[in-house]
Amino acid sequence: MSDRYDNGMKVRRSVLGDAHVDRAEANKTDFDLAFQSLITESAWGTVWASDGISRRERSMITLALLAATGNFEEIPMHIRATARTGASKRDVLEAFQHVAIYAGVPRANHALKLAKATYAEMEAASDD
């Protein structure tokens, strides 16, 4: 693998946690191997690895973009990542308020619903 892939995997683990990445890696198949390499190198090894902005800011931007474009499936994963990136609940709320104004209230509302449920799961897990 390339240096960008190796660095991307380190960043991915740092942001998403070992358990998440280990599950994703265990589910890789020959069919999606090239795709998984692409996102590890480009998303994690290039975009998330850049020191141009903080990981907190990247979390906020990523969550806003996911909500604005209606890509809700990854919002819980990125909400869980905020525990590692430093984006607070207020940061996330502010990002989703921008979504409401610039991309639509229904998308922001659904993103907030997902965030609330994910935060509740995270809090319940920490009580165990």
Automatic annotation (TrEMBL):
It is an enzyme of class 4 (lyase). GO terms for molecular function: 4-carboxymuconolactone decarboxylase activity; peroxiredoxin activity. Pfam families: CMD (PF02627). InterPro entries: 4CMD/NDH-1_regulator (IPR052512), AhpD-like (IPR029032), CMD-like (IPR003779), Decarb_PcaC (IPR012788). Its EC number is 4.1.1.44. It comes from the Bacteria. Residues 35-117 form the Carboxymuconolactone decarboxylase-like domain. Keywords: Lyase. PANTHER family: 4-CARBOXYMUCONOLACTONE DECARBOXYLASE FAMILY PROTEIN, CARBOXYMUCONOLACTONE DECARBOXYLASE-LIKE DOMAIN-CONTAINING PROTEIN. This is 4-carboxymuconolactone decarboxylase. The lineage of its organism: Bacteria, Pseudomonadati, Pseudomonadota, Alphaproteobacteria, Rhodobacterales. The gene is pcaC.
